């Protein structure tokens, strides 16, 4: 049903695996890990411009908040007039609310696509997204852009001795599949690789939320609904990385870590750039006001030319 997402996601992952596999070997766990990480970087790079517009939209929202609150009070009894006035104000300032949520709307199906593609390397068992295949049938079934050899390469890939397709809570059917492509991993062995990724993902999620909350308008942050959302972002979502991590395969945890690390770096770089732009604009306005003539003062006359007109003969 979502093949229009699964095929592009798998194509980008296949491309990066082809690149890193040529250097490290197709069956290398590091080649597969880097493929997942650079899939994230590719998607985030494509979304960089909308992400910057999202941040600019948030800033414009803060600047327009006093005027929007004023319009809400003026048209408190007429929602139609209130919506029209707010829309007019947003158009006058080039404000598009859709840009504030576009990157998140795009990233969600990408994450779901990656989750499905990675899970589809192992279709044994009968859980969500599984087809009840035997390990032999699963290893002989292509996965979107990946042929049979790629599927077997992924199933056999090890990262520090642990299958990249393993999760701490891997079912018995998955363990049978791992046995067909190498040694059977233990829960402790999987945890040695998975737990650090879970901790980094949780910490990065919390730090990203802190950076976002720190730049919120204090008046907006005091709103009960916004305060609740901030609490979710600061504590509940990071906790989800720890509680839900045991259910996710190592490859998906790598996606989570890479995505949060990119977000952390992007926020700091983009905000620093926008702060410099705002500083330059403020200095330009101050300079213009300082050079403007005082009210009632005559404008400065132009300097006279040193040349005299000759007499007409």
From TrEMBL:
Transmembrane spans: 5-24, 30-52, 187-207, 232-258
Chief location bin: membrane
Location relative to the cell: Cell membrane; Membrane
Region of interest (Disordered), residue spans: 280-313
Membrane insertase YidC/Oxa/ALB C-terminal domain location: 32-270
InterPro entries on file: YidC/ALB3/OXA1/COX18, YidC/Oxa/ALB_C, YidC_ALB_C
Keyword Cell wall biogenesis/degradation: no
Pfam families, sorted: 60KD_IMP (PF02096)
Keywords from the named record: Cell membrane, Chaperone, Membrane, Protein transport, Transmembrane, Transmembrane helix, Transport
Membrane topology annotation: Multi-pass membrane protein
Similarity-based family: Belongs to the OXA1/ALB3/YidC family. Type 1 subfamily.
Subunit organization: Interacts with the Sec translocase complex via SecD. Specifically interacts with transmembrane segments of nascent integral membrane proteins during membrane integration.
UniProt protein name: Membrane protein insertase YidC
Originating species: Nocardia jinanensis
